[in-house]
Amino acid sequence: MTFELFYWPGLQGRGEFVRLAFEATGTPFVEIVQGDAPGQGMDGMLHTMDDAACADPPFAPPFLRVGDELIGQTANILAYLGPVLGLVGESPRTRRFVNQLQLTLADLVAEVHDGHHPIASRLYYSNQRTEARKRTADLIDYRLPKFFDYFERVLANNPHRSGWLSEQAMSYADLSLFQVIAGLNYAFPRAMAGFAKVYPRCQTVHDGVARQPRIAAYLKSPRRVAFNTTGIFRYYKELDRESPF
């Protein structure tokens, strides 16, 4: 089985949540935009995405091609990959819950993005800087605590007491929680300074994922695209501030 991942070049973005699932399990995959064979590169991605004859077209990257099927939306991709890669439990209830967690993280990621682009994605940050300060202040003071209170409670209530979000093993939702915390550490170092003390269980998930041998090797490798100011998690000094953490 060949997994082909389509995402924008030079960005972690939402594609990184899918990459982490492959990297954590040592699963080979092809990054289409990095190739130069026919059907690869940016032209290959855009052609595939905009193909008028496609029966199941994705709206936007990331999307995954498996055989003749295209699977779009990060949470949907991970819901498919979870059972295939062994990153989710066996029961239908567990799989629904882990998907629920992933969708909640997707909501958080969208709010982080809208912190620096509160008016429109097509406008530059410099065109909405004043509004971004207001939106990010609310994100840091109210929305981040609300989300992490929830994830801390999920971890505390896991009956297996495993330290992971669901059952006894790391799931794709744990990988995604790691990525969100890592991104927030980059974007808001002042706001996140006290995070580990206020949310020790979430911090333990972050640290536990980072210690996984394959993930640790990936984070040190050139395959891991660095955080930058064109991705979802962006550092702007004027947006960072002390937080309730």
TrEMBL record:
The keyword Transferase applies. Gene3D superfamilies: 1.20.1050.10, Glutaredoxin. GO terms for molecular function: glutathione transferase activity. SUPFAM superfamilies: GST C-terminal domain-like (SSF47616), Thioredoxin-like (SSF52833). Transmembrane segments: none annotated. The keyword Phosphoprotein does not apply. InterPro entries: Glutathione-S-Trfase_C-like, Glutathione-S-Trfase_C_sf, GST_C, GST_superfamily, Thioredoxin-like_sf. It holds the Pfam family GST_C_3. Keywords: Transferase. Residues 91-245 form the GST C-terminal domain. One of its GO terms (biological process) is glutathione metabolic process. This is Glutathione S-transferase. It comes from Pandoraea pneumonica. The lineage of its organism: Bacteria, Pseudomonadati, Pseudomonadota, Betaproteobacteria, Burkholderiales.
